[in-house]
Amino acid sequence: MKAISLNGKWKCKSDVENIGIENKWHMSENYNLNDNNLKDIEIPKSYNFLKGFENFEGIFWHFYQFELNEETDLNANDYQIRFKGANYNSKIWLNSKFLGEHNGGFTPFSFIVNNLIKERNNFLVVRIENTRKRDQIPAMSFDWFNWGGIYRDVDLLILHKNRLNNVSIKTILTTKQKSRVEVSYNIKGEVLLKWQIFDSTKTYILHEGISLERSGKGGFNLIINNPKLWTPNTPNLYYLRIYDISQKSKELLIFNTHFGIRQIEIKGINLILNKKRIFLKGASLHEEYMPYGRTIPYEKRKEDVSNLKSLGFNAIRTAHYSHDEDLIDIADKVGILILEEIPVYWSCDFKNPQTYETAANMLTELIWRDINHPSVIWWSVGNEVPLHKKTCSKFIKSLMNLARAIDKTRLVTVVSRKIIPDLTRKSVDIATINSYFGWYFGHVKMISFVLDLIRTPVFNKPWIYTEFGAGAKYGFHADWNKQVKFSEEKQLQVLDYTIRTINSKDHFAGWFIWIYRDFRAPKRLNKFQQGYNRKGIVSGEHNEKKLIYYRFPKIISEKRKTYNTKILGILLWIIFFPLSYLLFTRMIDQFLEYRVKKEKF
Ligand code: GCB
Q1: 518 in Cβ contact with 535 (< 8 Å)
Q2: Which of 2, 150, 324, 549 could form a disulfide with 86 if both were Cys (CB 3.0 to 4.6 A apart)?
């Protein structure tokens, strides 16, 4: 495979009245470089960086002229244009012909362009719309900035006609000293395959072989003795290369990737990595780093991961959608676990089959993108959706089944805000809870009891506290004892107390602070927020470290002495559950929801 970058100097213009399709802006004869509305844009970049469009949500057209500068060989190659991510609906034309469209801002998509690509004067047109719609994922309301446009790389891929799709490398630890490696793939065309596995030096061949299948589905298995396991502390990598040797004269490298030998499992209330209990100490992260927006340089992403590691964190939750694959690549190499999710968030049109199809497609695209990354340990199919409702829980359970059908080697779950009525908790591999005690409601000291209470109906699996936190405006200080909202002191108190409490609960297998960095949240407009969600431990504008940042290495594994109120929790559950599951608990939940809504923005 060869990749020719289509990043660089593009032109673009807005289409506020939605007249572009009618006026055939995709036709090369209608493209006029003297058009005053055309603007320069350096792709990948969101159009929200253009002057006058800082808060724009709507339609933007992008135009790119390029030369292939080499002869096309349609007998040997397929030509494919690939977008790594563009938000939200993309419609694409090449040389005035429609290629297709894609929904969703955070996963890659591509089109074969064999019959359209020319050696010279190619004209690529992309119409992108990020208007909010009820049937989209996410839908109308979400707590982040709706960056629009082409903010990830665009490439022209020249692929061998005979190649592999959906390559998956599973590693199973039969014992601590032995790993079975199962490789499977779909063959496109006809091949004769030779494969090689290299150790971390990339030069020493550990195993090699020839695969018998020449078309259709194929694969091979092998045993690696005394494997160097992948863990966040020892991110050991192996390399797989697969060649097509069917043409005697040359070997074609048709697949090349790194992978890690590691196994993630649940055993009772424990989360197990490579047969040892692991406790997740994590931070959520939005894909935003000013002044880059979502187009974050590799080195900056690496800096974030290294900072988190140096504070003692061992996991990142890529809230609330998949980030660029660069982050996952860094996580594999530097050593940090990744929890991935799709943006099925708050209120979506759960009854609509079209919405389900979009979500299912996103999940499939994400899993196949990241299936061979050792750092990724879970697929979450949504966040804070109304899991007490049947239509929603059905939607979520179907997505979880889909994830399991593609990948049986990772944990599958949904992130829940429901303290009590959640119709999916029995179906998740690992139970989750988001709750902001000490911030949106209640007192931080209620956490211990609530954590014991929620355990009663879900006592046989581990829990992760997936979100908690408090806002703080960098530089705003107040009296420790007064617990002043948005002060760095209050944030420190909430996080410190919560972390030490969760650390003391056996049924918890980890926690994730909300959030590493402040991020743009346009509806948050009070004098401390000023368009940002301020729950970061570093600021959004300049990465300034807040008080809590310095506290981290100390509290990250510290336990607070808590009373075990498990028995009280069980008793309360027995008394209340039969009487009031339908009425009372739902009322509490509605009330909490109402408060969250009221205080959120
Ligand atoms: C949540 C959401 C997250 C918000 C956060 C907050 O529960 O999952 O997207 O940004 O709360 O800060 O309110």
Answers
A1: yes
A2: 150
